[in-house]
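Query structure, 95 tokens:
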């Protein structure tokens, strides 16, 4: 596991410094990116940035589960999840 992490504020500051844009501009662009990503995935559209990542909505079938406190069997309804796949450039950067 990575010992370091980068939160959104730090990411915005780094991008602003490397591009010469203001932090407010970078923050607005990231906000727009995440909003469009959420809208696309919510509507079932796959978002792909070749070489970097792909994000898509996946379906989960209904299944039987167990309540860990009581041991009672429960029915878990069908639903959706999100799958994020790393692209080749992102995988290469992790080496």
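Result returned for the query:
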């Amino acid at each position: 596991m990575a010992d370091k992490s980068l939160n959104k504020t730090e990411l915005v500051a780094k991008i602003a410094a490397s591009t010469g844009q203001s932090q407010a501009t970078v923050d607005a662009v990231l906000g727009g990116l995440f909003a469009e990503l959420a809208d696309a995935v919510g509507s079932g559209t796959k978002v792909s940035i070749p070489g970097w990542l792909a994000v898509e909505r996946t379906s989960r079938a209904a299944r039987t589960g167990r309540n860990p406190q009581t041991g009672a069997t429960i029915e878990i309804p069908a639903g959706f999840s999100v799958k994020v796949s790393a692209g080749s450039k992102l995988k290469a950067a992790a080496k």
